[in-house]
TrEMBL record:
Keywords, alphabetical: Membrane, Transmembrane, Transmembrane helix
Top-rank lineage group of the source organism: Bacteria
Protein name: DUF2029 domain-containing protein
Stretches that traverse the bilayer: 12-31, 43-70, 82-100, 120-144, 151-172, 232-253, 260-279, 285-301, 313-331, 337-357
UniProt entry tagged with the keyword Membrane: yes
Length: 388
């Protein structure tokens, strides 16, 4: 719960007390709308303090999204999606509730449920989510590609929503810090929990080449230090961009070939989200919460062939709870036991990414369906008659 009472509460108290407003009058690492839920948690802080108020806020948002998901419980598919959400949430543990990412997960789930019939509304919700934590922008990108002929609706809605947010920020006097959450990430080092940091954490375990894990006061987290770390950190951003571009190309080709939106959107969304996690130099444990929304949609629209992916996701979520908070103190001092758990979690992230890329490549298209029907027809024509 550390971030809630160590940073969210002081930031919001500062804004309410007439001090500097993060993202507006003071540079900030988060998009500006992230301050809204931090302020909203004060509405419930009278019950048992700010941290409890934050938990209540998250529960209220989750309950509203959960009610929207299950309705009256008449849809087996939606009930299956609800079970997936609950299981992954429990396996992920407290990190799934006590971080700003917890605000964006229910928003993303509702947006994805609306994506097919109301792409403009879905895009607007996701854009607001991206102004809280950047990852829903990947879902907007996936929706733009999967929507095919309605792509312009998604783009127009996202653009209009973003413009409205920018106008509010500028009107409040935040023009100078408008893109601060982007520039603040440029000089960041390699966070201890990130996938790319794994080899360096092991070097720290054995004390090779002066590698170590230490606390970074600027970004308020633990990072790895040693030869090659800066080079790796510098490479990750362009590698992420290349990976996102490659996934988008696959998605566009699938869409042009006639892939149905319902079949393309879940694997495309999950692939982009996992690229943001695996190629990220930050790699905070709460990032794993991002995979919940695309899995919920996927289970609802198409459960065939997804069981293995759900198993991988469950293992990843459980190992993430193992990393934080269970063995976090061991990881930060480069203890082999903690690092083994962290390594296993990061390996599972890569395994999950490989699996979903395979699923994306297998998404059926109109051309593949026509070829399949033609082949089936030819086989039936050559086959002997079936006697009733």
């Amino acid at each position: 719960m550390g971030d809630v009472y160590n940073v969210y509460e002081p930031w919001s108290n500062q804004a309410l007390g007439g001090g500097g407003i993060v993202g507006i009058t003071v540079a900030w690492v988060y998009p500006q709308v992230a301050l809204v839920p931090m302020l909203a948690a004060h509405l419930f802080s009278w019950i048992a303090g700010y941290t409890f108020g934050w938990a209540v806020l998250v529960c209220v948002l989750d309950a509203a999204a959960f009610a929207f998901l299950v309705g009256r419980g008449r849809s087996r598919a939606r009930m299956a999606g609800a079970r997936v959400w609950l299981v992954l949430f429990v396996l992920l543990g407290p990190i799934g509730m006590y971080r700003i990412d917890a605000i964006t997960v229910p928003l993303a789930i509702v947006a994805l449920l609306l994506a097919i019939r109301h792409p403009a509304v879905s895009s607007a919700i996701l854009t607001i989510g991206a102004w809280i934590k950047i990852w829903p922008a990947a879902v907007v990108l996936a929706l733009t590609i999967a929507a095919r002929k309605r792509w312009w609706v998604v783009v127009a809605s996202a653009g209009a929503t973003a413009a409205a947010v920018v106008l509010v920020i500028v009107a409040l006097g935040g023009a100078g810090n408008l893109t601060g959450f982007i520039t603040a990430q440029v000089g960041r080092g390699l966070q201890m929990e990130s996938t790319a940091a794994t080899p360096f954490v092991w070097l720290a375990v054995f004390g090779v080449n002066g590698a170590k894990v230490a606390f970074d006061d600027e970004i308020i987290t633990f990072a790895v230090y040693g030869p090659g770390v800066d080079t790796m950190a510098a490479l990750l951003t362009p590698l992420m961009a290349l990976a996102v571009a490659a996934v988008c190309i696959v998605g566009v080709l699938k869409a042009k070939a006639g892939a149905r939106m319902l079949r393309l959107l879940p694997p495309l969304t999950l692939t982009l989200v996992l690229v943001l996690i695996v190629f990220n130099k930050v790699g905070s444990p709460q990032f794993v919460a991002w995979i919940i929304a695309p899995f919920v949609l996927w289970v609802i629209v198409d459960r065939s062939g997804i069981r293995r992916g759900l198993q991988y996701a469950a293992i990843t979520a459980l190992l993430t709870q193992g990393v934080y908070p269970l063995v976090f103190d061991l990881v930060r001092v480069a203890n082999p036991i903690g690092v083994v758990v962290l390594t296993a979690r990061n390996v599972m992230l890569v395994v999950l990414l490989v699996w979903v890329v395979q699923q994306l490549l297998r998404v059926p298209t109109e051309r593949s369906r026509v070829a399949h029907i033609a082949a089936s027809g030819a086989r039936r024509a050559d086959a002997p008659p079936v006697l009733d």
